[in-house]
Write a structure and sequence with these properties.
Blueprint lengths: L10 H12 L6 E5 L5 H12 L5 E5 L8 H8 L6 E5 L2 H7 L4 E6 L5 H11 L3 E9 L6 H12 L15
Parallel strand pairs: 1-2, 1-4, 2-3, 4-5
Length: 167
């Protein structure tokens, strides 16, 4: 289902997202920041379907959603009933998003200030014991700096790890 969907996640990362979504219990929803064509969304949706069926909110500008590849890919994967696309910039969407979050996957803008704003606006919505995952923390300075400061430099996170094969 994901082989032909464009995206920059390694097989190991895709498997990790699937497993994280499968382990969600429903104490909160799954939120993905940055969806593009839906490759990671499909992994989150399929993992959720295999687990507790937790709703997935895909936050992205979704410029071509109505007739675009994202919608087609989500429908082909048969997860459209679980996935709610949320059109808009993540920093603006965060202000009105009021669902508790069990799994947050951040793969939006890679500009340091926008990554920092995503962290500051979205992470407080994650339930106690929930999971926060970031993409591109080794290749891009923005995510790397924010994660180093806010996660590795904090005592509020545990079980911090990298996915082997990660970009």
């Amino acid at each position: 289902l994901i082989k032909d969907v464009p995206g920059w996640l390694s097989d190991e990362e895709l498997e990790a997202l699937y497993e994280l979504a499968r382990e969600c219990t429903g104490r909160g929803v799954i939120v993905e920041i940055g969806s593009w064509k839906g490759k990671s969304t499909i992994c989150l949706g399929l993992g959720s379907r295999a687990g507790g069926g937790v709703r997935v909110f895909a936050v992205d500008p979704h410029a071509d959603y109505r007739h675009g590849e994202f919608k087609e890919n989500i429908e082909r994967a048969e997860i459209a009933d679980l996935v709610t696309p949320v059109r808009g910039l993540s920093q603006e969407v965060a202000d009105s998003f009021d669902e508790p979050i069990e799994l947050l996957f951040v793969d939006g803008s890679h500009e340091e200030e926008l990554v920092r704003e995503d962290f500051e606006k979205w992470v407080p919505k994650v339930v106690e014991g929930g999971t926060v995952a970031f993409h591109d923390t080794t290749w891009h300075a923005g995510p790397r700096k924010v994660v180093a400061e806010k996660i590795f430099g904090s005592r509020h996170f545990r079980d911090v790890r990298f996915v082997i094969g990660s970009t």
